[in-house]
Task: structure prediction
Amino acid sequence: MADGFNEARALRVVEIMRDFQSLQHRIAEYSPNPPAEEYFEEGYQVLRQCRAEAAAVLAAPFPLDLTQVSGGSGEQEKRQLQRIIIDASARRFQVKKIYLRAVAAVRWLNTRNAILQGEPANQGHAAQLQQANHTLRNVIQHLPSPALNLVDSTTR
Result:
């Protein structure tokens, strides 16, 4: 028997999907065009990897087995919405982690631009650029996992 929370569940799906969409748009905005000699620099590689991973999450199909449940129409809707919430939350969680890495790479890019000040990289910049690369690796390595918002009330 349905429990009367299906409308709330449907609103939760919309909320999760809007957050997911917002994160996807932000990641898509990070598309720097580095000069050929800087193409393989660490931060640029991270940004390209983040964009590819976000696109892969977006392209992943929704598991069809999640839509096939037995029971009355209210109960069926309840189970479908619960499963959709779980799937959408997991995807949003993945994209949030990708987004945090992309933000770290953008910070690296801003730091690099501040160091170079429009000049080509040379030996005088080497120590600062190495420090920026080290900071990027360190930040990415120690990124906290964003909280997975699967609260009991969203999956009732």
Notes: The longest helix spans residues 73-116. The radius of gyration is 21 Å.
